[in-house]
Amino acid sequence: MIRFILAILLLLASPVTAETLAEQNERLFQQIRQVHKPGTAQMQRLRKIFAGSGVLGQGNPAIARHPMTSDECAARISGGPRSYDNSRNARICGDKYMAPLYDPTTERPQDATVCIDQFEFPNIPCTYPVVWVKAREAAQICATMGKRMCDAHEWEGACAGSLQPPDYRFDLGSVSAMRNWHNSKYGPSRNWAYGSAYRDGVCATASSKSAGCGGGGFNSCGSNTYPTGAFPGCVSALGVYDQHGNAAEHMNLPRKADQMASTGSTSLGVTEMKGSWFIFDRYYAHPDWCRWRAPYWHGSRVMSTGSHANYHLGFRCCKTVN
Fold first, then answer.
1. Rounded to the nearest 10 degrees, how much is the dihedral formed by the CA atoms of 263, 267, 269, 274?
2. 320 burial type by CB count under 10 A (0-12 exposed, 13-18 middle, 19+ buried)
3. What's the pTM?
4. In whole angstroms, what is the distance from residue 81 CA to residue 94 CA?
5. What share of the chain is helix, strand, coil (3-state, %, to 5)?
6. For 2-25, what is the mean pLDDT?
7. Domain segments of the chain: what residues?
8. Phi, psi at residue 311, to the nearest 5°?
């Protein structure tokens, strides 16, 4: 009897083998296949992009400590995650969980010429966002899914609740000069997706960094994100979620007119890191109002093989329609 009890205690004390990154990604691929229904060739390309990285996924499962489960997320949403599936938007955008971008003062949703993912990739509510992604990989994944990387002004319009025409001052030359001009233009009327003033607790911003997270290594920094869409109040007037908190996001900042993804360019410009990330209630690292453009952090061309990736940096896609 004593030996039996000791055996049970030993079994309970034995460490549980953590899910591997490959296993985590396989589960992710199955979710993508079930929800977005990509073809066989698309899935093969998607798998190849992930396999070529070695770190791309929803974070290192050995050290990530997510503050909320997918089931807990689902319980917070009135009607459950499927309530986010808008049939009108799906008809306009040609895929689930996308939002048309337009100016509500002069246009209707069906007038939109571009849609944006409602959630960070994989654009499935109550899943963890994909991180450790380079800008180049984000652009490749969007293309694989029949979409494209968003230009900075599209992400900003999705957040601010009104898509405005592109306002890139290519004549100013430097990223810094373009940024300063843009932020001066929109600064007096700054807003957040949920309102006109910054608020704690509205978005996925109350998590914390791993204790040993210093410079951002894969084996020391957990991607301690929330499931996407877990904060129904963190939504813009156009129906786009989590643009504050959770993962920061790669976007395209064109430096020339022929680098705009929205006009069909595939050469693209430089990385613009949008939004905030999962610790902002604890550490407000920088402004994150909707149309704010960041300094040239980890600057590189979007399609550079050396573009930046880290534990709290993800992306979402846009799609040209009509």
1. 70
2. middle
3. 0.94
4. 19
5. 30, 10, 55
6. 58
7. 29-320
8. -75, -15
Widest CA span in the chain: 83
**DSSP state letter for 188:** G
d(CA 302, CA 150) in angstroms, rounded, equals 11
Q: Which structure tokens are listed for 153?
A: 């002004």
Pairing between β-strand 270-274 and β-strand 248-253 as defined by DSSP bridges: antiparallel
Query: DSSP letters along 23-61, please?
Result: HHHHHHHHHHHHHH---HHHHHHHHHHHHTTSS-BSS-T
Which residues are within 8 A (CB) of 2 and not within 5 positions of it... i.e. 6 or more apart?
A: none
**Ramachandran area for residue 112 (φ above 0: left; ψ -120 to 50: alpha; else beta):** beta
Pairwise CA distance, residues 125 & 81, whole Å: 6
Identity of the amino acid at 109: P
pLDDT at 216: 86
Decide yes or no: CATH 3.30.40 for domain 29-320: no
Tell me, rounded to whole angstroms, the distance of Cα 296 from its chain centroid: 19
pLDDT classification of 17: cutoffs 50, 70, 90: low
In tens, the pLDDT along 150-187 reads 999 999 999 999 999 999 999 998 999 999 999 999 99
CB-based contact 273:159 (threshold 8 Å): no
Instruction: Tell me which H or E stretch contains 93.
Output: helix 87-93
Joined together, the tokens standing for residue 237 give: 């007037």
Residues 147, 151, 152, 156, CA torsion sign: negative
